[in-house]
Design brief:
about 85% helix; 6 helices; mainly alpha
Length: about 200
């Protein structure tokens, strides 16, 4: 077998493996993608508003030590948020510029969406240390009628962390499914439909 025959065989195999997606199928995919993009924009602006509000609240906190602690904590949360939103923004750009002509490009899109699901849940879980810091700040600055013991502080911290992690995980899963997951499921079902 010569090189030209191998090239022709290779090209035929590639063409057979990647069926084209027709215009009607592309339109079915674009609707859930547009919903995902819309929800990403909405969530981004909500996060911006929340951080602006949080920094405004910090500016009126007294005493200065409390203001400093809360400002540093919120600035740290902002850094974590910027890191994760850079990943989300990359996905936003990718799904905005997507040319879904083959089932392979759709498969790649579904993989990116599922990868961002993991980023999304990691984003919510990454706030666990901030819960601990917030509890420490609250314990430090709330005037107690009598000093609280070390065991009580440990119980408050550990229970707050466990409850906070559980709530963050549940809220993250619920939020993701409500605003993104059902559209990803729809796209995955369309991919299965195209394969058959």
């Amino acid at each position: 077998m010569n090189i030209d025959d191998l090239k022709n065989t290779w090209n035929e195999d590639i063409e057979n493996e990647t069926p084209e997606i027709n215009i009607e199928q592309r339109n079915k995919i674009n609707l859930p993608l547009e919903k995902v993009r819309k929800n990403m924009r909405m969530e981004f602006w909500w996060v911006v508003a929340i951080f602006v509000f949080a920094f405004l609240v910090c500016s009126v906190c007294q005493p200065f030590k409390l203001q400093l602690y809360i400002t540093v904590l919120i600035a740290s949360m902002l850094l974590v948020t910027v890191f994760f939103y850079s990943k989300f923004f990359k996905l936003y750009k990718d799904i905005s510029n997507t040319e879904l002509k083959t089932s392979d490009s759709l498969k790649d899109l579904v993989t990116q969406l599922n990868l961002n699901k993991q980023y999304y849940l990691s984003y919510y879980i990454s706030f666990a240390p901030f819960i601990v810091c917030e509890i420490l700040i609250v314990l430090e600055f709330i005037p107690w009628p009598q000093p609280i013991g070390e065991v009580k502080i440990a119980v408050i911290l550990i229970s707050s962390l466990i409850i906070g992690m559980f709530l963050l995980f549940i809220c993250g899963k619920f939020w993701f499914h409500r605003y993104y997951g059902r559209y990803i499921d729809h796209i995955e079902s369309l991919l299965k439909e195209f394969k058959s």
